[in-house]
Amino acid sequence: MIIVIGAGQAGLAAGRELRLAGHDVLLVEAHARVGESWRRRWDSLRLFTPARFSSLPGLPLPGDGGRHPGKDEVADYLRAYAAHFELPVQLGTAVSRLRRAKDGTFEVVTDGGVLTADGVVVATGPFHRPRIPDLPLAPEIVTLHSAEYRNPDRLPDGPVLVVGGGNSGMQIAAELSGSRPVTLALGGRQPVLPQRVLGLDLFTWLRMLGIVRVPAGSRVGRLVRRRDPLIGIGPGALRRLGVRVVDRVTAAGGDGLRTAGGHTVTPSVVIWATGYRPDYGWLRVPGALAGGVPLHAGGIGPVPGLTYVGLPFQRSRGSALLGWVGHDAAVVARSYPGRRT
C-alpha cells in the first residue's frame, strides 16, 4: 500500500501513475471535497495557463482550449478526474503525523486513526501557513491574508493597502482599484511578461521553447527561479488603473504604515499578499527534513519509500503547475519498485 497525502492536482496525478504501475494506493485529503483548496481562493481567480495546457495526464480539461479557466472550473475538473479514474480518496481525513515504524513501514496518523503504508507520497502543495508580518497595526484597520480574500464586496469601504508584489498581489490590487483607492507596497521588482505575445498565449511560447520544463538546477532554471516573472499585469499597468505603488513596508504606528522610502499609508484594510511558510512539523521521519523543509532530489527523498510531488521547482518551473505536475508524478511513481497489489 502506498498512501498519497493530499488529493489536489499533485496527489491525483501521483495516484493515477501509481495505480497504472500496479500499486495499491490510497489518497487521504483533509478537505471534504476534492478541489476544495481551489474553491476557497478569491472569486475572480483564473489560471494563467490556457485550458489546453491545464490538464492532468489522461483527461483533457473540456471546452475551448484557448480560454483561461476559473478556479471553480478547476475544482470541478479535479473532482471529475478523481471520479473518472476511480481513484480511492478518503476525504475529511487530516494527517497530524507521519512516522516510521520499527519494521520500516510508515504510520500515517490521522484524525480518524492510524494508516499503515509501505510508501508515502507527500502531495500537500506549497500553500501551508500564511506569512503575515508582525507589525502593530491600529485595531480599527481590517487585516487579512490573500488566502482569505474573496471579492471587493466583502471588504469594508475605504482605502486598501495590498502588501506583496507577486501575481496574487497584482491581481487583487487591480480588481480592487475599480471600487476604492488602492496602494500596492512592493518589496522588490520582478520582470513582467504579457499574457499574449505575437498573437499567441505566453505559455504557448514557453512550451515551444522548453522553458517550463527546463531542469530547475540548470543555469536557465536557476535564472527563472530567481527572476520568476509576473504575468499579464505589473506595476506600470496598475499605475494606469490609478493604483498608488510604493516601496516595502517597514513599520507601523498610529493609524498608518511606513515604507523604507518614507511613504506613509493610512488604509482601512490591509491585505497581506506575502506568501506562505512551509509547515512540515507533522513529518516526523528521521532524515526527511533539513531546516524544516523536505530533503529530496527531484521529489525522491533520502528515506526509502518517502517521496514528494507538487513542490515549486521540484524538477522544473512546471512542477507545481496543473498542466505539468504529471511529469513529476510519473518520475516519482517509477521510484517505487515492483508491483504491490
Q: What's a quick, concise take on this entry?
A:
The chain has 341 residues and is an alpha/beta fold.
The number of helices is 8
In terms of DSSP E residues, the strand content is 15-25%
CATH architecture of the largest domain: 3-Layer(bba) Sandwich
The name of the CATH topology of the largest domain is FAD/NAD(P)-binding domain
Shape, per Cα inertia axes = globular
User: What Rg is obtained from the alpha carbons, in whole angstroms?
Assistant: 21 Å
Low-confidence stretches: none
Q: Classify the helix fraction into a percent range.
A: 10-25%
Question: Can you tell me the CATH superfamily of the largest domain?
Answer: FAD/NAD(P)-binding domain
**Could you give a short account of the major beta sheet?**
5 strands, parallel
Q: What would you note in describing this structure?
A:
- The chain is an alpha/beta fold and 341 residues long.
- It has 2 domains: 2-128 and 278-334, FAD/NAD(P)-binding domain; 132-191 and 229-272, FAD/NAD(P)-binding domain, CATH 3.50.50.60.
- 21% of the residues lie in helices and 23% in strands.
- It is built from 8 helices and 24 strands.
- A hairpin with a 2-residue loop joins strand 5 (106-110) and strand 6 (113-117).
- The protein is globular and about 60 Å long.
- The protein starts with a strand and ends in a 7-residue tail after the last helix.
- The mean pLDDT is 93.
